[in-house]
Amino acid sequence: MTEINSVTTLTHDGDVAVITLNSPPVNALSGNVRQGLYDGFKAAGASDAKAIVLICEGRTFIAGADISEFGAAAGTPTASLFDVQDMMENAKVPVVAAIHGTALGGGLEVALCAHYRVAVPSARLGLPEVALGLLPGAGGTQRLPRVVGVETALEMMTSGRHVPAPEAAKLGLVDELAEEGKLKEAALAFANKCVAENKPLVKISENNTKLEAARGKPEIFAAFRKANARKFRGFAAPEANIKCIEAAVNSASFDEGLKAERKLFGELMMGSQSAAQRYYFFAERQAQKIPGIADDIPLRPIKKVGVIGAGTMGGGIAMNFANVGIPVVIVEQQQAPLDKGLATIRSNYERSRTAKPEETAKRISLITGSLSMEEAFADVDLVIEAVFERMDIKKDIFTKLDAICKPGAILATNTSGLNIDEIASVTKRPQDVIGLHFFSPANVMKLLEIVRADHTADDVIMTSMKLSKQIGKIAALVGVCPGFVGNRILGQRQREAQKLVLEGAMPWDVDRVLYDFGFPMGPFAMSDLAGLDIGWVKEKSNGETIRDVLCEADRRGQKTGAGYYDYDENRNAQPSAFTEKVIHDFIVKSGANPRKIDDEEILERCIYPMINEAVKILEEGKAIRASDIDVVWVNGYGWPVYRGGPMFYGDLIGGPAVVLKKMQEFEAKMGDQFKPAALLEKLVAEGKKFSDLKG
Ligand code: 3H9
């Protein structure tokens, strides 16, 4: 065995040279890895090997370029990725990439420079750069369509989807599927076969057949853009990816296409969107790390889950666990709501069709119902209460759970704002009590706020964090305070949106500004969708608010064909003269003069107080770090990921000094609600950024 460098070895197995990469955690293409590959291929090429296999150790094949190197100061000069690819593609003997885990981004781009690819069925291949606000910058945009065709390349590159190896084999990306656990043997056998059969050294860059099929057909691209316009709205990277594939089709040569790719890659890399998306990639992973709790702390096994409440929330929560094979028992007080809840779960599964019918049936069978907490919860490892938001009811439930559940069971509440310390206080085991705040619909929404109460044990927190990953959620650990992190910040935006309307802006002006910022919809459109009558009581309504008047006129949102907006039969929204008059009358009645409010003020009034509130949350220790706040807002509230989250955005627009100045200006004009956080002033005094709040 020759040690090429600290992450690369070269061995020989008969006629085959084997280059093995081992750079945990994911064999990303750091300078060291690139140099190891370059030197490894050089040494293998200089040996008398008749074929070369590239294989990786650890959990995965190369998962891409090393994202942490992007934008960082250049270190010691090393071989570039292009040098490595050149060496592979132009090797004089067949090169076989042996793929397990994931071959992503630059990893797949390396594999596409091998002459052949062998993969285990569990492997996944893809070009997910779009999710980082980028495009494949190492020839992937030119090679992928040459293998899979233009339409598939468009879909793969703009979605970033990780394609399972069996599908990749059908697409021509993988030449042979190996038996699971026998990758090396299969790759060696394939390499020997190449030698024995004198197989050609396939260079993808030289095969234009699939591109020619799309030449002179601009309608392919036009149709793709049109079909995905909504999905791509606001993002720069999908369009740049499409342009690269167009360049592949229309360029006179591979190299000319590569030049277009280089140029567009550089533009994206320098832009703020990719900076935000790359930041966000690490933010999500950082959120899993809890200072003061070891990552390898022994976890509590969660083999069975109980849920209290078969409503929309309880049902959605239960589905998350059944989806990963964990049995769930739901308890309700009455048979009728239990039956209704279970029926809703069944129909949700049948409607969503995300799994094969037999898998769907299995998931449904994992969710059972009961009318008795005593019977259902004696052996559960985790119970999640999802009932009506009333402290007395919750306390009653937790008193019972304390008596029923086995020692060590985690007792969780899904409250979206009640004091969890108070709930825990009725039990003799407050260390086992935690908040698991799911967002509605709980089987769909990615965010999970994990709420640490005063006495919550470390292993309960870590078990919840790991469990959230298992059920496909993105979690952030927050502290007990009204609204926790997400809703507390939302409260600021909602308040300002309402106030702006009472000063002269129309709901559709506010909505448009926030929509253009990148939110999926503004607060008034959102109210119409959810129903204006949530929490509205007809008998008590006395026209005190705009909402009261709209509901009294039976304008209760989309479901009644009117709310803040008028809706046609296809639920298309139109500004409403009725609403405009209601607002006008309110302003006149208050004795104020409506004023023209420009878009800039709308945005600043909605966004700056959110940033200020986030800083207050950090000041009070209710979130660990600034980036956790961004994880909450991107995942749970539709903050556009290409703007990173409220904290990243705060730095992008000039940092704490700019936000402080604006808050002071608003405070002087409009009072206490805009009082700057003390920590905001401290950050400015110390010349720090929001991103410096790292916990
Ligand atoms: C690219 O390739 C550009 C090229 O086209 C052109 C170049 C010229 N770099 O997610 P996990 C870390 S762009 C650096 O928790 P999993 C991650 O931060 C890249 N670090 O594990 C974490 O660190 P820590 C295209 C990376 O099993 C640890 O590895 N590729 C990278 O749930 C474990 O990660 C991608 O976009 C990286 N590329 O999922 C793939 N990847 O433990 C990005 C991971 O300190 N990666 N880390 O927190 C992924 O999608 C997932 O990490 C993967 C594993 C599916 C691989």
What order do the helices and strands come in, and which of them pair?
Layout: E1 2-5, E2 8-13, E3 16-21, H1 31-46, E4 51-56, H2 81-89, E5 95-99, E6 102-104, H3 106-111, E7 116-119, E8 124-126, H4 140-148, H5 150-159, E9 163-164, H6 165-171, E10 176-177, H7 183-196, H8 209-212, H9 218-232, H10 237-250, H11 254-270, H12 272-286, E11 305-308, H13 312-323, E12 328-331, H14 335-352, H15 357-366, E13 367-370, H16 373-377, E14 382-385, H17 391-404, E15 410-413, H18 420-424, E16 433-438, E17 447-452, H19 458-470, E18 474-479, H20 486-503, H21 507-517, H22 523-530, H23 546-552, E19 565-567, E20 573-575, H24 577-590, H25 599-619, H26 626-636, H27 646-652, H28 656-670, H29 678-685
Parallel strand pairs: 3-4, 4-5, 5-7, 6-8, 7-10, 11-12, 11-14, 12-13, 14-15, 15-16, 17-18
Antiparallel strand pairs: 1-2, 2-3, 8-9, 16-17, 19-20
Helix pairs in contact: 1-2, 4-5, 4-10, 5-10, 9-10, 10-11, 12-26, 13-14, 14-15, 20-25, 21-25, 25-28, 28-29
What does this structure look like?
There is one protein chain. This protein is an alpha/beta fold. It has four domains: 2-269, Alpha-Beta Complex (2-enoyl-CoA Hydratase, Chain A, domain 1), CATH 3.90.226; 305-480, Rossmann fold, CATH 3.40.50.720; 504-590, N-(1-d-carboxylethyl)-l-norvaline Dehydrogenase, domain 2 (Orthogonal Bundle), CATH 1.10.1040; 599-692, N-(1-d-carboxylethyl)-l-norvaline Dehydrogenase, domain 2 (Orthogonal Bundle), CATH 1.10.1040.10. It contains 29 helices and 20 strands. The strands form four sheets. It has an eight-stranded mixed β-sheet with strand order 13-12-11-14-15-16-17-18, sandwiched between helices. It has a seven-stranded mixed β-sheet with strand order 1-2-3-4-5-7-10, sandwiched between helices. It has a three-stranded mixed β-sheet with strand order 6-8-9. Strand 3 (16-21), helix 1 and strand 4 (51-56) form a beta-alpha-beta unit. Helix 4 (140-148) packs across helix 5 (150-159), helix 14 packs antiparallel against helix 15 (357-366) and helix 20 packs antiparallel against helix 25 (599-619). The longest helix has 21 residues, at 599-619. The two termini are 45 Å apart. The mean pLDDT is 96. (S)-3-Hydroxyhexanoyl-CoA is lined by residues 25-26, 28, 60, 63-68, 81, 102, 104-106, 109, 128-129, 132, 134, 136-138, 140, 282, 285.
